[in-house]
Amino acid sequence: MNHVRHGGHGLRRMRAVLLAGCLLAAGAARADGVAVEDAWLRLPPPVAENAAVYLTIRNDSDAAIGIVGAAAPGLARRAMIHAMTMAGGRMRMQALDRLRIPPHGKARLAPGGMHLMLMGLKRPLRAGETVRIELATDAGGKIAFDAPVRDMRGAREGGAGR
Amino acid sequence: MAGVAGGMLLLAAMLWAAAAFERIVSPRLPPQAIGGDFSLQSATGALRLADFRGRVTLVYFGYTHCPDACPMALGVMAAAMRAMPAAWADRVAGVFVGLDPERDSPRALRAYARFFDARIHGATAGPAALAGIARQWRLDWHVPPHRAGEDYAVEHSTFIYLVTPRGKVADVFDERTDPALIAAEIKRWLLAEGGAK
Fold first, then answer.
1. Taking CB atoms and an 8 Å limit, are B67 and A50 in contact across chains?
2. What distance in Å separates the CA atoms of residue A118 and residue B166, rounded to the nearest whole number?
3. ipTM higher than the 0.85 cut
4. Which of A60, A81, A113, B157 pairs with A38 at a CA distance of 20 to 30 A?
5. Is any Cβ of chain B less than 8 angstroms from the Cβ of A42?
6. What is the structure's pLDDT at B15?
7. Is B15 helix (H, G, I), strand (E, B) or coil?
8. What per-residue confidence (pLDDT) applies to A3?
């Protein structure tokens, strides 16, 4: 996987992503100073009704922002951000009503950590296709991004620390 | 002090060297019994763990609406199974036990499990039978109260159990385990008990 951390490469990439985000969301991404990077969707078994999307959300503004909603129009009945925690030996998924990202901070949604869950898929997904997903911020902005569908069978998982 | 430390270092080095040669260190069962035979319903009829004797079987408990931990675990299981030499391809199997029988139909479980590897079988049982299995297998799980048709997430332990050819749980992994490590353990148990039924 290709996680951008620091340095010029990351900045160039971020600018590209920001620009793409602005074009896609008609300026909303710029207004909010929010960029989405490294988004991908885990190809679920064809019978599955749910799928996980992973991404990094960067807040390049001077104020904290909250992600308060998500949607995949035409693809999923609902979408929400889930946090995964181990509670008494059980893996527990918890819906986050608001994901706060501090000024110039980022939120990384990665396997085994947080994910954006698509619920009630309306059609089976194919590896290699790209799906459009939207995030809503508490400032009233909307960020649209595209996530490629990845078949992870046989691939090494990166993942978030637990 | 230096002598003790040196001795311990030597011991550690010897243990490491021994572990590197899998035939030298015989695999051992954990001191406490975990697991035991169960009978479940699959899309193709009854699935009994006892039917898998002679094979190393990886067992995972999850649910089909699980988007993250379960696909990761089943992917790890499939990768470990595929790391076996071709001659041992049919000496390994997997079982994906659905903890959410209300939504985990045997058909859905079969399709979900086969997506990862055709040797992974999907099956489930009623809540009471699952509770009994969970006690035996030291598994913690909880289906939250919900209305009909409502979305809900099942909380569950995320263990991948290694069941030996004689049907004993010998090891526990999870979705973070390197498949190569699981493959090495599968090989050890096939060498130790592979002829057993």
1. yes
2. 41
3. no
4. B157
5. yes
6. 61
7. helix
8. 33
Does B143 contact A at CB distance below 8 Å?
no
Q: Residue length, chain A?
A: 162
Residue given tokens 């290709």 in the structure block: A2
CB nearest to B112's CB, from A47, A91, A119: A47
Report CA B34 to chain centroid distance, whole Å. Answer: 12
Numbers of helices and strands, H then E, in chain B: 5, 9
Predicted confidence (pLDDT) per residue in B101-117, tens digit: 999 999 999 999 999 99
**Tell me, what DSSP letter sits at residue A125?**
-
In chain A, the percentage of residues whose pLDDT exceeds 70 is 77
pLDDT tens digits for A25-38?
Answer: 433 344 468 999 99
What is the DSSP code string of B119-158?
TEEEEE--HHHHHHHHHHTT--EEPPP--TT-----EE--
Interchain CB distance below 8 Å, B65 and A50: yes
Residue A161 tokens read as: 């620390």
With 60 as the cut, is the pLDDT of residue A148 above it?
yes
In 3D space, the residue among B96, B56, B59, B39 whose CA is nearest the CA of residue B172 turns out to be B59
Chain B residues touching A84 at Cβ < 8 A: 68-69
Q: How many CB atoms lie within 10 A of CB B5?
A: 9
Cβ contact, residue pair A157, B75, below 8 Å? yes
Q: Could you tell me if A135 and A143 are in contact, meaning their C-beta atoms sit under 8 angstroms apart? A: yes
In chain B, at which residue ranges do the beta strands (DSSP E only) sit?
Answer: 39-42, 45-48, 56-62, 92-98, 120-124, 141-142, 155-156, 160-163, 169-173
- Of the candidates A47, A90, A117, the beta carbon closest to that of B111 is on A47
Beta bridge partners of A91: A86, B156
Q: Which residues of chain A neighbour B158 with C-beta distances below 8 Å?
A: 91
pLDDT of residue B161: 97
Q: Check CB contact of B175 with chain A, cutoff 8 Å.
A: yes
User: B140 and A90 in contact by Cβ < 8 A?
Assistant: yes
pLDDT higher than threshold 60 for residue A130: yes
Contacts of B83 in chain A (CB under 8 A): none
To which residue do tokens 């503004």 refer?
Answer: A61
